[in-house]
Amino acid sequence: MLAVGSDHGGYELKIAVLEMLKERGVDCADFGTDGTDSVDYPDFAAKVAGAVSSGEAELGILICGTGIGMSISANKFTRVRAALVHDDFTAQMAREHNNANILVMGGRVLSIKQGKRLVEIWLDSDYEGGRHQNRVDKISAIEQQVIEH
Ligand code: RB5
């Protein structure tokens, strides 16, 4: 399952992304927010990143105005690798090199068309593993050190 969440700054793009995901037959769920009233992005980052961290969701998408607040918040969760992407290249690398399990975008940075395109690129790319696995393992090792600290 793919968990999708936004604050008010990402709401419009989130609705367009959900529509596209449903058209593609992707099993997805809307974790809020439900409109354009002002809300706090960490609340929605926690819902989506919590679901990915626990295994309830395999993947997540988070959208706020810039994507910055969502990525900072989501990366506090263990097992989460949230990548803020801006263009085709970063969307592709987020999956191929970083095996990002949450895609983060800025709804005030990207057009609806660009945002939907970045989601498609991320979903259609494959993690390369190999030398990148060693690096991803090192991220997990840092996570473990922080837990034990
Ligand atoms: C909300 O105004 C805005 O701060 C938020 O959407 C996001 O850009 C934070 O990083």
What does this structure look like?
The protein has a single domain, classed as Ribose 5-phosphate Isomerase B, Chain: A (3-Layer(aba) Sandwich). The chain has 6 helices and 5 strands, in the order E-H-E-H-E-H-E-H-E-H-H. The protein is of the alpha/beta class and 149 residues long. The structure holds D-ribose.
Helix run count: 6
Spatial ordering of strands, largest sheet? 2-1-3-5-4
> What is the CATH fold-level name?
Ribose 5-phosphate Isomerase B, Chain: A
Query: Could you say what the CATH architecture is?
Result: 3-Layer(aba) Sandwich
Unreliable stretches (pLDDT < 50, length at least 5) are: none
CATH superfamily: Sugar-phosphate isomerase, RpiB/LacA/LacB
- The structure class reads alpha/beta
Tell the overall outline.
globular
Relative strand content: 5-15%
Count of the domains = 1
> What is the strand tally?
5
Helix share of residues? 40-55%
